[in-house]
Amino acid sequence: MKLTIERSALLKSLAHVQSVVERRNTIPILSNVLMEAKDGKLSLTATDMDLTIVDQVGATIVEAGATTAPAHTFYDIVRKLPDGSEVEVSANPDTAQMTLKAGRSTFTLQTLPREDFPASGMASLPQVFGVQVSELKNLIDRTRFAISTEETRYYLNGIYIHATEADGTAVLRAVATDGHRLARFEMPLPEGAENVPGVIVPRKTVNELRKLIDETSNPIEVSLSETKIMFRFDSTVLSSKLIDGTFPDYQRVIPSGNDKSLVLDCKTFSSAVDRVSTISTEKSRAVKISIDGSTMTLSANSAENGSAVEVLEISYEGTALDIGFNSRYLLDIAQQIEGDSAEFLMADAASPTIVRDSADNSALYVLMPMRV
Predict the structure, then answer these.
(1) What is the pTM of this model?
(2) pLDDT for 241 beyond 70
(3) Are 309 and 302 within 8 A, CB to CB?
């Protein structure tokens, strides 16, 4: 295999794939990126056996061929090469080495046989539909902060996506929860997504996808089965196994009888929570909210740090109420609200609270209170 390629093009393509590769691997071949050169293109593939990313980039192919090289070392070398340089890459299967040349620099890397690399399994999947990149970004951003990191409840370690109906309209709905908070986002059902099964997309897949789609403005082709999901856009294909588990009945968590309505300026509230929580202990991060008439008092107490109090003006319909929340969870939700005001629907100090963007009904958040 022998080729020349622009450093910036190679760096961009390597950046797309190398972050999938785990830093510590018990299987040596999984530390490598697969390079296949033919027909004027260099194809790069990286996998952790659950998630695979393939990226193609234009190159001058002198001699077609394939090899695998250490992903992170290869990326670091290309990253440190001078801007605008031409990179010459050649691999000799007989010596199990790959040589990189750029200007006066020469690097030699140990390679592993292409045959050892796992098959990518990029087979076509039965359900196929398209989605605008802005909608997919919205879907991810409005829900992923609520994904659980608790490995024992593995079925919560991703975003649950399914087709359903809301107010008589067909929607594609995404839900994530960690047991303390829940995020739900809806968008109009894309054409072709009518029979989409309910699937749980893993956290790592969600995070890698979000990084990749930042660089495109083209529609994303989504295809899936009950066990795999694939995203295609530009010259990149990401495919992933889905979480094999049953997502809980999230509808039961969303309260329907919350009659106390509170509307406030979201940015002012977020800044106040951030300031007051400076005092709260690292473990609980508790902030107490006392609501009475048109004022809200935020307070936090800590035996080590002292106390903090801040008063806000609000619009409130209901009787006086004292309720406590984890400040980090409040701030996570406040960051998702793009409008000026947020609406809180509450029942009492021990029941889940609903939070909405007053100007946008596509997202809904549920937050469990805590004792303060």
Answers:
(1) 0.93
(2) yes
(3) no
